Amino acid sequence: MTPAQEYACFPKDRFITTTDGTPIAYTVVGDGTEVPVLFVNGWSCTDTYWSGIAPVLVESGHPALLVDTRGHGQSGLPRPPGFNSSGLRPEDVSVERVAADFIEVLDDAGIEQAALAGHSIGVQLIFEIYHQAPARVAALLPVAGTFENPVQSFAGLPLLDRLFPVADALFRFLPFGFLQPLVRRISAPETALTMLQALKVAGPKVTAERIAPHVVQICEIDFSVLWRMIGGFRNHRAAALLPEVAAPTLVFAGKKDLFAPPEVQHRMHDLIPQSEIVWFDEGGHMLPAEEPEAIAASMLEFLTRRARVAAAAGSNVAHPSRSSK
Hints:
Shape: globular
Mean pLDDT: 86
Strand order of the largest sheet: 1-2-4-3-5-6
CATH class: Alpha Beta
Number of helices: 13
CATH superfamily: Alpha/Beta hydrolase fold, catalytic domain
């Protein structure tokens, strides 16, 4: 068994090769008749962040699709990355290409329409999936993420975005391999959690057990691929799309999230017609690991109330009422 198989909360038993030649691993959990939910992971993340949410939805009749994002877990890349991922092309890790992977997974699974739940940069991906295939989207469930360039809004420090090209130029020559031994020194989940809480990435409700699979993946993954992906996501914009979104949308936001600050969540909510938002006063960026029970309950209620209404109307047009929770 490979490390990726060992730390998967939902073992992947289905495999496809995408149109650009990338192997993608996924699984479908449950065979209920309610709206399927496609879960989209964040940057560097495993499916551990859905481990307290997906089973609740499955138990209520919603089949769950869980996918290893390209370059993560058991999914690969279209070509060998080479030194510092110099073998990868920008389009290999662009938001547009990664989003297309998920549409091809839906095709392979024989699912015509699904609700899309995305965490962190998975939020950018679910909006891009909607952009490419709006008829395939029954609802949008963004969790602790932004709709474009995550570097610009990180911690309210736009200077980081201006410095990114400088760092990118340096990292093309400095070997990323030196990071692996450093990361492995903090590979114990308890140590990693202490550090994440000190950096205010993880809130007090996050447990070492919940993030352990993510920590293991971080110790195995190619950091140069992750950096290239950030570059791709930095170039992604979806603000112009949001006012045109017709799929029922429920935003989950933490008031202490540094990666996707509250002002980003407010703007997302304001831009998407008839969207709803759930706020967590103590919530941080690891919101799915902090508030899984509340998120699962809200998703279920929303899908029953809004996604069924849209389906009954024969389109993705949202219910005419709008509320903020």
